[in-house]
Amino acid sequence: MKTISITINTSWNIFNFRVGLLKALQKEGYKIVCVSPYDEYSEKLEDLGFEYHHIKINNKGTNPLEDFKLIKDYYNLYKKINPDVILQYTIKPNIYGSIAARVLGKKVISNISGLGTVFLNDNISSKVARWLYKVALVKNSIFFQNNDDKDLFIKNKLVKKEQCDLLPGSGINTDIYKPSENYTENEQITFMMIARLIKDKGIIEYIEAIKIIKQKYPNIKFKLLGSLYPGNPTAIKEEELNTWIADELIEYLGHSDDVKSEILKVDCVVLPSYREGLSRVLLEAASLSKAIITTNTPGCKDLVDDGINGLLCEVKDSVGLAEKIEEMILLKKEDIRNMGKEGRKKVINEFDESIVIDKYLKAIKNII
Question: What are the structural domains of the chain?
């Protein structure tokens, strides 16, 4: 039996976004081994019949000694597991897991699901990270989630064109993420932003746009779902969040393990992000037949046909975002519903999980 190992920076990520792929690989006769930091979802992976191994990853740290130890830990684990193919996601597994795998002569498929601050900034740590990508990915097969990210890696000579292919994000199970038949329409249009509370997601622009809208439409409801993310250089401080809540700009929902239910309660999902790989939030919203407002940037614009299933605004433009929110407010309810229906059609045709699974199956078979 051939062994496939998958490593991501959280077990939560594997369980919530990759289980469909892993079940399909298991059905094909592969043994599945998950490698990730232990959390409450690690045992759930074992309950599904996957082997699990803990690895300690400090997702926010930049300590060279800590990172060298991570390479060593990956080396020891991969030597023990002896996988035929390794699937790697997120920055540290993609870099340090790839270095360890290369020393052992293991075949790796990397998934670059977003560039984060590595390409949004040009400081020393970002330059080091880009150099590490170049060193680590040299022998890997690589899936990107949008053309812009792929072209940027090739242009910066971090990878070669022949190493690369495109995936429609993590894909989505459109049978699970489908509109509710029992949806009760809101009296007034309700908006929600879903994101980690960091500035790169466009949260400041969202709040500033709400302030503009509230002057003219004081009763429109805006929600915010997501966790504080202390340690990130662009993290929103708790005091800022509490001020927004006290000023009644937002209804803050905190963290939820049932994002689907929260999306079903609103009419429009807003994500003014500066850049994404391919936004999972927007995938879920579109699959659930919700209208979208997002930025004209890689990983966001890919999911929206402007004026058809949502509206696009420019990055870091709170006034432009407010204009798009007002445009959505002034639409007839039927038109908003039709936007949602068009979004679901787009997801089914272009982003269904089956497309992702098929691409991985072919890539793995080619390698083996």
Answer: 3-171+352-367 (3.40.50.2000), 190-350 (3.40.50.2000)
